[in-house]
Amino acid sequence: GAAWQINQNHRVGVNYRSEVDFNLEGDASGLAYTGINGIQNGTKLPGSMELTLPATAEIASFHQLTDKFAMHASFNWTDWSSFEKLVAVIPGHPDSPDTIKVENWKDNYRFAVGTTYQLNNKLALRSGVAYDTSSVDEEYRTQTIPETDRLWLSIGAGYSWSKNLSFDAGFTYIFAKDAKMEEEIEDIPGLSFKGETSGNVWLVGVQANYKF
Question: Per-residue pLDDT for the chain (212 aa), expressed as one digit of tens each?
Fold first, then answer.
């Protein structure tokens, strides 16, 4: 990451986080893997799955417009297009590697703007709004991860207890957009799920800061 202090009232920052590769290990069991005899005997087949969490990048800015009022904005990109499918390698299974689920995600973007109002020397009030785009098109949305667009509304405050000690608190309410989904159940011809996903999220955070 890096930050550029343009002048006393304006600064811009950028950051990048690389993708992270995981190799998950576990066991497979059930009718599709060990058959009826395997279920009865409790047989399990060891296997593994590679999973990559996406890279992200963000650019943000801060602008002190008056002695008391400041605005900030940010743009975030996440490389979710790398999340195409989940494939398990099960050496003891004739169909290995086994495609567990096809995801077909796409890159995700978040746009955000916020304000800070310095009420007095001790208390700062904050607010913000953000829009998070869905990482999957409607035709690929699944019950497992019913991804959809989201609107974030946030408020918060910062309190300077002393020269060295300060506290911050924030509250966010996320409105998840209602979205349709229709998913064919793999390995069971003619069986499908059709419905709608919806949901909202509350986030609350507090922190203490001490300068040595």
Answer: 999 999 999 999 999 999 999 999 998 887 777 777 777 787 888 889 999 899 999 999 999 999 999 999 999 999 999 888 888 898 877 777 888 788 889 999 999 999 999 999 999 999 999 999 999 888 888 877 888 999 999 999 999 999 999 999 999 999 998 888 887 766 666 777 788 888 899 999 999 999 99
Beta strand segments in the chain, E: 2-7, 10-17, 20-28, 45-53, 56-64, 69-78, 85-89, 98-102, 108-118, 123-132, 150-160, 165-184, 192-210
In one-letter notation, the amino acid at residue 195 is G
Strands 165-184 and 98-102 turn out to be unpaired
Cis peptide upstream of residue 97 (ω within 30 degrees of 0): yes
Answer for the pair 176, 201: CB distance below 8 angstroms, yes or no: yes
Amino acid type, 80 = W
